[in-house]
Design goal:
Layout: H1 7-19, E1 25-27, H2 33-41, E2 46-49, H3 51-55, H4 58-67, E3 72-82, E4 85-90, E5 95-100, H5 101-111, E6 115-120, H6 132-139, E7 146-149, H7 155-163, E8 169-171, H8 174-177, H9 183-192
Parallel strand pairs: 1-2, 2-3, 3-6, 6-7, 7-8
Antiparallel strand pairs: 3-4, 4-5
């Protein structure tokens, strides 16, 4: 589904953009340049695309050319399929596309993506740590920021995403939602580990 006929989503993004003063990235249902324009026009800083990029890779080029690479984030949902290989999965991790995740990351980078959101489908929800090997392998073939996603459970896991996985950012959700980790405590911890954080 595209954003067409989903004015409520655009309205929600507009209201959120008026209330938050941090960079805002929005994903889901973005399939056309008009969708990107609609979101940027109401205050979104970046858009995250996933299945639309897989279905039509030229969409990455078109978005980067029209709006700039800095606002095109490609989300990569990867699952390990052998000791040294990860494939791109879609439909919530249920369908293997057969696309090699490392090669796809390199391709989307070359097509103009400005950032990658890399979710390990194996680690997601486990709270057992990020797939640092996957992130490190992707970091070797791209020269854009990587956001590690999937597996955050402790402050050490987040530190390791930077030090072992070479990620530029780490995404965590449930540990904050359920107040397992206080964000200010995490920032202080990361600073104590010589990892720069936004204050």
């Amino acid at each position: 589904a595209s954003l067409e006929g989903r004015d409520t989503i655009v309205d929600v993004v507009k209201k959120v953009a008026q209330e938050v003063f941090i960079p805002l990235t929005v994903g889901g249902g973005i399939r056309k340049l008009e969708d990107i324009y609609s979101l940027l026009n109401v205050g979104c800083d970046k858009v995250s695309i996933n299945s639309a990029a897989i279905d039509r890779p030229d969409f990455i080029n078109e978005g980067a050319k029209r709006f700039g690479s800095q606002c095109i984030v490609v989300a990569i949902d990867a699952k390990r399929v052998s000791k040294d290989n990860w494939n791109i999965f879609v439909h919530g991790g249920r369908k293997d596309t057969g696309i090699d995740a490392i090669e796809w990351a390199k391709e989307v980078y070359e097509r103009g993506a400005g950032e990658l959101l890399v979710t390990s489908m194996d680690a997601d929800g486990t709270k057992a740590g990020f797939d640092n090997e996957l992130n490190r392998r992707i970091d070797e073939v791209v020269n854009i920021p990587i956001i590690a996603s999937g597996g955050a459970g402790t402050m050490e896991h987040i530190r390791d995403a930077f030090t072992l996985g070479h990620a530029d950012a780490a995404l965590a959700a449930s540990i904050f939602h359920f107040k397992e980790i206080d964000i200010m405590d995490l920032k202080h911890y990361l600073l104590s580990q010589n990892i720069p954080v936004r204050r």
